[in-house]
Amino acid sequence: MRRMTEQSGDRPGFEEEEYDDADNTEVAIPNLEPVSYFGTDFDVHGLVRRLNTQDIIVPNFDPSPESESEVSGFQRKFVWKKTQMDKFIESLLLGFPVPGIFLVQQENKQLLVLDGQQRLRTLQRFYTGKIDPKTDFKLDNVARKFRDLTYESLPADLRRSLDNTFIHATIVKHAPEASPSSESVYSIFERLNTGGTNLYPQEIRVALYHGELVEFLKELNSYPAWRDIYGPPSERLKDQEIILRFLAFWENEQNYKRPLKVFLNEFLDVHRNMEGLNSGKLRRVFHATCEVASAGLGRQALRADAQINAAFADAILAGIAKRVEGSEITDPGALKQIRQALLEDPEFRSSITRATADEERVTRRLEKGRLAFRAAK
Asked: Tens digits of per-residue pLDDT, 305-364?
């Protein structure tokens, strides 16, 4: 079954694929550190200028950046409807109060948008006069006196009024001597997006930890055999998160501690630009694992039942990977019997259905997966 999320604020409603991983998305992050922040007001003209010069960066929460983006990995699909865009501009022209924005100051002094991206992108488009390269931005769904106006055709007094309108910003401050932990900033992302369509953990990671490893995940995500076992690309980056889990357990299982999302955050942060990772070896292991899984299990490789089960995928992928690293599997058809035997094991079943992020349950399912596929011919 698929479900529709409600639409609210900057976040659109859309369908999400079935995916069982509540322990990763709902568990609290322990020992969060306080952050330093301050409030300031930006005039609208100054906000647009900072967006154009990339002093303010809109992060990417989508599988691939928009084609017109000049900053790989730092643009998201524009999701507001034209009516929402028009109403926001009209509110500013009328002097109505509008929600503030949240930014986080990076070490290089760039400001990363935590909340308010649709408002900022709407302003940027209105000032350029283009919704997209082929469509002019003329106000339509507004009071008659504003209808058909563009930024350039605004009367001088209205243009000055818009330029000089202030929008409040809360800025999480970067201080090298007392820098807020990345987990605290991650948690702010989660909490700012509790209304409407929540951001999923991997969407936040792509924004906060963008680098060579994020690009490597995107590369692996396009591998045909992986697409065979996962299905169509996930709009919420859930496919990339399963790949991240595979890599993190493959490289660092011995240091795993719950909560799982913090383990994944730290792995992506530490290896942001592939530090300490052998991309060639990881690519070969992942490709070989997907080839065997596709040939022997197909879509059942990631699904214990009807829907994708991330914990089940951990065990299957880890088990196949460990086996193919040592020797070739010559009879992929036998994998279905191994999969069924695992699902009939009460201890294994428990490890993929309840408290799946507990250290003992993670260790249990990964060990059982490796042991099961060791016997494959």
From this structure: 989 999 999 999 999 999 998 888 888 888 999 999 999 999 999 999 989 999 999 999
Residue 172 forms beta bridges with which residues?
A: 37, 104
Who's near 41: CB < 8 A, 6+ residues apart? 166, 167, 168, 169
CA distance linking residue 251 with residue 245, whole number of Å: 10
Q: Where are the domains of the chain?
A: 35-180, 197-374
Strands annotated E in 130-285? 130-132, 135-136, 166-172
Nearest to 219 by CA among 296, 274, 297: 274
Q: Count CB neighbours of 333 within 10 A.
A: 11
Contact 161, 93 (CB under 8 A): yes
Contact predicate 64/201, CB 8 Å: no
| One-character DSSP codes across 8-44 | BTTB---EE--EE-HHHHHSPPSSPPP--EEEEEEEH
Could you check whether the bond before residue 155 is cis, i.e. omega within 30 degrees of 0? Answer: no
Q: Tell me how crowded residue 152 is: count the other CB atoms within 10 A of its CB.
A: 9
Give the tokens for residue 178.
């007392």
Amino acid identity of 159?
A: R
Split at pLDDT 50, 70, 90, the class of 115 is confident
Name residue, tokens 């409603």.
Answer: 13
